[in-house]
């Protein structure tokens, strides 16, 4: 039986590069993107989790810690 699955989107123009979400994700699914956004920050980037052992559960921890409300969480 499949567990809960989720995904997130990160608005790279809202992101201020504080990286709280990177520290918060229990599966290490968020990384720093290597292109600057229009405000000069390197935004956080959802890596998708193609690895079965590191799938997004839609727990929303990342979204809760984001001070700029840049993360939307979707659950299947
Ligand atoms: S917590 Fe929000 S503002 Fe901070 S890096 Fe993550 S998406 Fe960007
Ligand atoms: S919803 Fe949970 S598992 Fe998915 S990216 Fe955010 S913190 Fe990680």
List its traits:
two-stranded antiparallel ribbon; 76 residues; 21% strand; single chain; alpha+beta; Alpha-Beta Plaits; binds iron/sulfur cluster; 2 helices; two-stranded antiparallel sheet
What is the typical, i.e. mean, pLDDT?
A: 93
Helix percent reads 10-25%
Counted up, domains total: 1
Strand order of the largest sheet: 1-4
Biggest sheet architecture: 2 strands, antiparallel
CATH architectural grouping: 2-Layer Sandwich
Oligomer: single chain
Helix/strand class: alpha+beta
Order of helices and strands: EHEEHE
How much β-strand is present in the residues? 15-25%
Write the layout of secondary structure elements.
Layout: E1 6-10, H1 20-24, E2 30-32, E3 44-46, H2 61-65, E4 71-75
Antiparallel strand pairs: 1-4, 2-3
Give your account of this protein's structure:
Helices cover 13% and strands 21% of the residues. It is an alpha+beta fold and 76 residues long. It has a single domain, classed as Alpha-Beta Plaits (2-Layer Sandwich). The strands form two sheets. The protein has a two-stranded antiparallel sheet. Strands 2-3 form a two-stranded antiparallel ribbon. The two termini are 14 Å apart. The relative contact order is 0.38. The mean pLDDT is 93. Bound molecules: iron/sulfur cluster (2 copies). One iron/sulfur cluster binds next to helix 1.
């Amino acid at each position: 039986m499949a567990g809960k699955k989720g995904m997130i989107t990160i608005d790279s123009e809202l992101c201020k590069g504080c990286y709280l979400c990177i520290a918060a994700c229990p599966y290490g699914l968020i990384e720093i993107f290597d292109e600057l956004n229009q405000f000069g920050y390197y935004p956080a980037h959802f890596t998708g989790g193609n690895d079965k052992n590191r799938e997004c559960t839609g727990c929303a921890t990342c979204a809760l810690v984001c001070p700029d409300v840049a993360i939307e969480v979707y659950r299947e």
